[in-house]
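Regression test attached.
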Amino acid sequence: MDLFLHLCVMCLIYIIFALSLNLEIGYTGLFNFGHVAFFGIGAYTSALLTLHHFPFELGLVMALTLSGIFGFLLGLPSLRLRGDFFGIATLGFGEMIRMVFQNEVWLTKGPMGLPGIPKPTLFSFRFATLPQYFLLTLGFTAITFLFLRILIRSPFGRVLKAIREDEIAAEALGKNAYRFKIKSFVVGSIFAGLAGALWGHYTTFISPNDFTLLETILVLLIVVLGGKGTEWGPLLGAALLIFFQESLRFLRLPPEYGRYLAPLQQMIFGALLIFMMLFRPEGLIKERGRRVYAGTQRVE
Amino acid sequence: MLELRGLSKAFGGIQAVVDFSARLEKNRITGLIGPNGSGKTTLFNLITGFIKLDRGEVFFKKEKIDGLLPHEIASRGLVRTFQLSRVFPRMTVLENLLLAPQGQMGEKLWALGLKRERVRDEENRNLKKALSLIEKIGLLPLKDEFAENLSYGQQKLLEMARLFMANPEMILLDEPTAGINPLMIRKIMDFILTMREMGKTFFIIEHNMDVIIECCDWVFVLDHGEKISEGTPEEIQNDPRVIEAYLGT
Ligand SMILES: Nc1ncnc2c1ncn2[C@@H]1O[C@H](COP(=O)(O)OP(=O)(O)OP(=O)(O)O)[C@@H](O)[C@H]1O
Ligand SMILES: [Mg+2]
């Protein structure tokens, strides 16, 4: 039971992480290869504040705020670039943030990492046990899902899709593509920060090694596998990949094989990514047009 | 309505547009013709801010608009189409239309939270308008289909309907009837004429002389980036300089 709940918590955290990336990649067409940076900023901000005895509420709010601010600061110059250069800029940013975690020892304790991150207390209720933490992440996942769904189905989300499809044509219709892209990027960063903060308080130990390119690849794979540009794709992708990854970890392999596990998993993920790109680039769930009816709006 | 003063643009050694000046009157349909490569599309790109001018000034409704960004010019009411149709392929026919209205409340993030009622009302109004428009162009059965699944002619028609939804004061059309069958050409011409009835102003690049003769009040002729003639469609047809530009080397 504990194992199952653990899987669920991990899964929910990655759902939030993947939903935020899906807004950028799936709906806005922004190929962000440094998404893990915002996950890390969220995790470190909330962890550091609560370790210094600030309340969890403040840690969380600051985590979201700082992720958003960094998203804005990165987006401002890089979203002026063409798509491929934007990808490279975000890739560089991801590495840069990891180096900051690694080298600013006065703040982050460097490679030692931050142990003993306290379990969160929200409105004087302490989420200490596994079932409690599960409910906490479930709540935040629901909020994220509903919030992003409202966004995507709104006229705002429609403009994002138009920019993804044809930026020039969107501009010709009077849409300021740059500003919409920045907004999308900031919102995506904020929710990545949320996922990071929840993750930090869950594992109670974070270090720079948790925020490598591999994490970006994992979340990218979740979005691509599930189906980018769909509302449910990230959920399906996260469920499949996180269950797969975490259950590998709990295989009782003899220790001499244990060290092959991580590289093996990376190879499988890499192969899966290539396979998806070649044979089903649209992912397991395919993007479909939204049906809109007069008066009401619903999805088919 | 639109005044162009001495527009010039060179690409490397090629003079694409040379010192082009013109005044386009409100509520008229003005044509722009010329052989391939004579600079027509470039002129449109210069007016709408997609390419930077080397020299010259553009005034729209007496306001200087050269130097503004494309979306700024479009939101002032001067909207263009592209030579090859540019619908949003992986958005439905209906979404393509709903996108078009300018300055939608629901495009602002804060309004989604604070002005829910207004956003919904606005959306429903646009939806009604879009649906009746789709019905008029005969695409109702395809309204939830991705635009990429439409035929080329249907895509061009959708683009016209999108302009109708966007409802700008002035429209620049780059070869609206190129590559589609006579029936579709008729429908597109009807669109143009209806919108003119509504008070819109047009500037149209077109190779099809029948369209020019039926629609246009006035025509400019470009050759090698220079305006070599202007007049009514009848005058243009008989102008020896125009005939030479089209037939000569
Ligand atoms: N972005 C560009 N860079 C370099 N040269 C260009 C560019 N755009 C146009 N040209 C050149 O400028 C000249 C005018 O091109 P333009 O596309 O304006 O012609 P056009 O009148 O629209 O022709 P068509 O009837 O074939 O559409 C051509 O010689 C073309 O090669
Ligand atoms: Mg052209």
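Expected vs. actual: identical. Residues 294-300 of chain A have pLDDT under 50 and may be disordered.
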